[in-house]
Design brief:
Blueprint lengths: L1 H64 L14 H8 L12 H14 L14 E6 L20 E6 L7 E7 L4 E5 L9 H13 L2 E4 L5 H10 L1 E3 L2
Parallel strand pairs: 1-6
Antiparallel strand pairs: 1-2, 2-3, 3-4, 4-5
Length: 231
């Protein structure tokens, strides 16, 4: 009887051992199956993170190296003043032997004489006298300490058989097809204060006048009589 009980105990112990071994193997198998899955997930997440970082780095590098587009500049406008100044003392194509400035003087004179607001009685002179007035020249030479000065280069134009009967005016070029005409006093007889005031009034009341081209038959005879004096 005792021997049978011993055999039963041994058999139970053997079954328990087998059952424990199976449980351990199943747990080990379960652990081994779950661990690779975690590793694969971690690797995938790391790869996505690495790819995103690489893409951001590539985009940043591309934006740094990309050259910004140049803004188009508007076309430069023609400088009429520079254009006229470059040509005014060159020989005229229309009137050989005379400069463009000399032709301008005659055309300005004709334009002024035809303006009845400036010279209502015209002029019967037989020649044109011209003299240059540099910018900064005193307008009233008899009151140098009080007189205003010419703000820009000007020309003094006179035409007449005698000084007393001549028509005199001054003008400055505007380089746009017009000139500004001034009428200074013929004589300075007042006090320095009053004459300087008259000089300033003359500058303040310059008259802008379009310059007409006129025909060669009108311009050429006056060009032949033009005399430019140095003062």
């Amino acid at each position: 009887m005792t021997g049978k009980i011993s055999l039963v105990l041994l058999a139970s112990l053997a079954l328990s051992a087998c059952a424990g071994s199976s449980i351990d193997q199943e747990e080990a198998s379960t652990a081994s199956e779950s661990e690779p899955k975690q590793d694969v997930s971690s690797v995938a997440e790391a790869q996505v993170s690495s790819d995103s970082s690489s893409e951001r780095s590539s985009q940043a590098s591309s934006s740094e190296t990309q050259t910004p587009a140049k803004r188009e500049q508007p076309p430069a406008t023609q400088d009429n003043r520079a254009h006229y100044q470059a040509e005014e003392y060159q020989e005229s194509n229309e009137y050989p032997g005379y400069t463009n400035k000399e032709v301008e003087m005659v055309r300005v004179y004709l334009s002024v004489m035809n303006n009845t607001d400036l010279f209502p009685y015209g002029n019967d002179g037989d020649h044109i006298d011209a003299s240059f007035i540099p910018a900064g020249t005193i307008v009233d030479p008899y009151a140098p300490e009080l007189s205003p000065v010419w703000p820009t280069d000007a020309w003094n134009i006179a035409m007449g058989k005698t000084t007393a009967g001549s028509s005199i005016f001054q003008y400055t070029s505007n380089y746009d097809g017009t000139v500004t005409v001034y009428r200074l006093p013929y004589h300075w007889h007042g006090t320095p204060e009053s004459e300087s005031a008259r000089a300033q009034e003359a500058l303040d009341n310059g008259f802008i006048l379009p310059v007409e081209p006129y025909t060669p038959s009108q311009v050429q005879p006056l060009l032949d009589t033009l005399q430019i004096w140095d003062e």
